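Backbone-to-sequence.
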């Protein structure tokens, strides 16, 4: 069964001696600031599935850095070979007082942003899920839960490489209610990454539970009542109306299965946390905030870029045509596009590997020699 995270717990291990005195090491899961779905699902997988790590601390550092130690380059897990040294293959980094696993950051084996690595079939969550299964012969998940996790991991691989631009069953603003953009909407109302992770872990618990129950036709009456109570308390804006419409038309097929309603319904059926209604309020408020901004989705950005030959576009032909290779966050900066700015994509091989960057410049104005760009992965506020 799914592990329910305990409060104020500290995970410790006794894995060495110094002058015959036991060394007590606390466990830490480290990822980048302002984490995305890939980063947080990876952390969830370790806390829920790796023996001895359920109470590990979470730590957040700027992109391409490591927590408590210097940056070093290791290959992604799937690229390791028997010829690689033990140090190169080491997932758990042992420090004097801590054991640390880096996910989706720091060029660790559970990261996929190493220079020169552009693999559309992996992400940090897929590497972490494989690592957890390899290192736990007795997973604390039922067969149905494992299948559900695998579906969520594959969904994360897709959105981490912007494959949602090819979705046929879920277009336009419907995507605001899928897992990756639910998290982005939470980031618009939660500035503390630890709080963000705690709520996201609960939502993942709920989604995995819902997915493990098979093809559900509707959400529970209890969940409907709580959602209705929230809607009744809100001013009747376009965003609130969109949320009400979403919950009135449950779908659990295709990408709809990764939706917000199944996160909240599963969480309610798990009967935790005690602050469930508070979680609902935070999540729906974030979604409403995002809907009100009416930000552009990845598909809409692609359409704009394809129509404007002045835009520089980072592409990959590895999989069915046009693919954005990099990290694009649906953040407030993109609102500039709707205020008369071009969107500019360009690819760069730099200290954080091969990424697409974004910049916005006024239409019809002369481009500067070096475009300023917004790299949202480095933001850590």
């Amino acid at each position: 069964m799914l592990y329910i995270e305990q409060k104020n717990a500290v995970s410790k291990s006794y894995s060495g001696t110094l002058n015959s005195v036991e060394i007590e090491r606390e466990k830490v899961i480290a990822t980048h600031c302002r984490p995305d779905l890939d980063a947080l699902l990876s952390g969830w997988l370790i806390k829920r599935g790796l023996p001895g790590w359920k109470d590990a601390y979470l730590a957040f550092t700027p992109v391409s850095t490591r927590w408590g130690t210097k940056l070093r380059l290791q290959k992604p897990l799937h690229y390791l070979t028997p010829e690689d040294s033990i140090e190169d293959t080491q997932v758990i980094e042992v420090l004097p007082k801590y054991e640390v696993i880096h996910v989706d950051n720091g060029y660790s084996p559970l990261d996929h942003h190493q220079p020169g690595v552009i693999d559309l079939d992996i992400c940090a969550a897929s590497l972490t899920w494989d690592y957890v299964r390899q290192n736990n012969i007795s997973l604390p998940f039922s067969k149905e839960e494992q299948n559900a996790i695998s579906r969520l991991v594959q969904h994360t691989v897709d959105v981490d490489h912007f494959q949602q631009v090819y979705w046929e069953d879920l277009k336009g603003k419907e995507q605001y209610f899928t897992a990756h953009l639910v998290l982005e909407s939470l980031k618009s109302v939660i500035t503390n990454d630890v709080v963000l992770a705690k709520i996201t872990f609960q939502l993942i618990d709920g989604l995995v539970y819902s997915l493990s129950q098979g093809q559900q036709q509707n959400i529970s009456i209890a969940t409907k009542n709580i959602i209705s109570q929230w809607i009744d308390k809100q001013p009747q804006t376009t965003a609130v109306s969109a949320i009400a419409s979403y919950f009135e038309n449950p779908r659990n097929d295709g990408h709809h299965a990764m939706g917000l309603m199944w996160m909240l319904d599963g969480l309610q059926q798990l009967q935790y946390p005690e602050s469930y209604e508070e979680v609902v309020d935070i999540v729906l408020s974030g979604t409403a905030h995002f809907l009100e901004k009416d930000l552009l989705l990845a598909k809409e950005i692609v359409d704009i870029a394809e129509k404007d030959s002045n835009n520089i576009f980072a592409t990959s032909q590895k999989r069915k045509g046009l693919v954005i290779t990099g990290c694009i966050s649906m953040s407030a900066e993109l609102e500039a596009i709707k205020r008369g700015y071009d969107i500019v994509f360009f690819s760069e091989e730099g200290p954080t590997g091969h990424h697409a960057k974004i910049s916005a410049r006024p239409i019809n104005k002369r481009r500067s020699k070096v475009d300023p760009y917004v790299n949202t992965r480095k933001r850590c506020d």
